[in-house]
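Hi support team,

I submitted a single chain yesterday and got back a structure, but I'm not sure I'm reading the token output correctly. Could someone confirm the output below corresponds to the sequence I sent? I've pasted both exactly as they appear in my results page.

Thanks,
R.
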Amino acid sequence: MSDAPSQRSALVVEDDPDIRALLATTLRMNGFAVLEASTGFEGLAVLKEHRPDLITLDLNLPDLDGVEVCRQCRAVSDAYIVMVTARQDEIDRLIGLEIGADDFIGKPFSPREFSARVSAMFRRPRTGQPERSEAPRDDLLRHDGLTMDVEGRIVTLAGRELALTRIEFDLLATLLAGPQRVWTREALLDRVWGDGWSQDHHLVEVHIRNLRKKLGEDMSNPRFIRTVRGVGYRMMPAGAGR
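Hi R., thanks for writing in. Yes, this is the structure output for that exact sequence:
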């Protein structure tokens, strides 16, 4: 018997049959078993039945708004989600919303670029349920009331668990691991997203913004994440934002 891992699966939710076929073909060429849906309601039904590892989601679906479908997907799944839109200006609307998507891509898109982005996503750790130890842990990251269990992928603030997306967790873990370092946007892209993302600064900015909201940051007097103007981000010294 083979011990090879089971095949990854993807769900393509797209009402345009040509775009849907292109996405599905590209994913199959990358080794995915592909499921397809042409409406938001159909996509949600397929998601609940099959639990795919990746979802591509059109913003402009004929029934439900893609943003609402994304929110409902995220409520029941930790699959990677890529939002797809026909208009570049819609990306600006998307990045201003806390919807839990991992990436945004505009139509028309390059199948090669799409493949590279998907590959980079799957190089990042997935949320899991590792075995828990009852012994005291010495691998926790702590900072001014924040506690991060890196292995368990759990973050608490003053004892309350925060519902972070995968990327938000990885960004915070990176910042906490080097709290005195100023992380450039390029360095964060390379560390969290992987190779080939060095120009996508807006991805860092939107996820940092959403992370700050969940941390309850007062932007006029930040407690945790400081913007180093023209460079990037670093952690605030403990107690500095109080």
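A quick pointer for reading it: Helices lie at 17-29, 40-50, 66-76, 88-95, 111-122, 166-177, 185-193, 201-214. Let us know if anything else looks off.

Best,
Support desk
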